[in-house]
Design a protein that fits this description.
30% helix; 5-stranded mixed sheet; 5 helices; two-stranded antiparallel ribbon; alpha/beta
């Protein structure tokens, strides 16, 4: 199994996109400016060649950043969920190279880690998941509190979990040379 991993954050401040409005009536977004209040997220996209299946998973953590203890906890949960060898592809973020993460990875021989090249987010299909959620589902969204932001973010990400065509699109967007299991026939990218 191949698993792509990335972290992101969803802020209380709305992401403003270009929009239409009647002439002379500029749209107004009312929000509570709360600096650095966010929901941190981990996204994982999987390609299972044996089962010919694509997967999308996420983990949300309100207020706090994702740290090495959270990374290890998610890796442990991944190992329980996927009981076969995994090739994990992620960036060179400092928490991915921390002592606790490195120590854990050494205890799991069937979890192989590969790194994306430096400054190459266009190769990670999880970046497309973040862009889709932020620019479409959460564009112009003004949450009243952190709980509403977490709820709406989770709903937006969950809506993509079972959409194999969308997940395949995220992976195709990277132009990685993968054969994707979708529509009962492998598709070359």
């Amino acid at each position: 199994m191949l698993a792509f991993w990335d972290e992101s954050g969803f802020l209380m401040v709305p992401l403003v996109q270009r929009t239409w409005a009647p002439c002379g009536q500029t749209p107004q977004l009312a929000h509570r400016l709360v600096h650095h209040t966010r929901v941190s997220a981990v996204g994982i996209l999987t390609v299972s060649p044996r089962r010919r299946r694509l997967g999308c998973y996420h983990f949300l953590q309100p207020r706090d950043s994702i740290d090495d203890t959270v990374v290890v906890a998610i890796l442990r949960q991944m190992r329980r969920h996927f009981r076969r060898p995994i090739v994990l592809v992620w960036d060179r973020l400092s928490i991915h190279r921390s002592n606790s993460v490195t120590d854990y990875l050494q205890t799991v021989p069937d979890l192989q880690v590969e790194h994306f090249p430096a400054y190459a987010p266009e190769l990670n299909p999880v970046e497309a998941l973040w862009a889709d959620a932020k620019c479409h589902d959460l564009a112009h969204f003004c949450p009243h509190d952190l709980a509403e932001l977490e709820d709406t973010t989770s709903t937006a990400l969950r809506s993509k979990h079972d959409d194999a065509a969308r997940i395949a699109g995220y992976i195709r967007r990277t132009k990685l040379p993968l054969r994707l299991p979708y529509n009962d026939s492998p598709l070359s990218t």
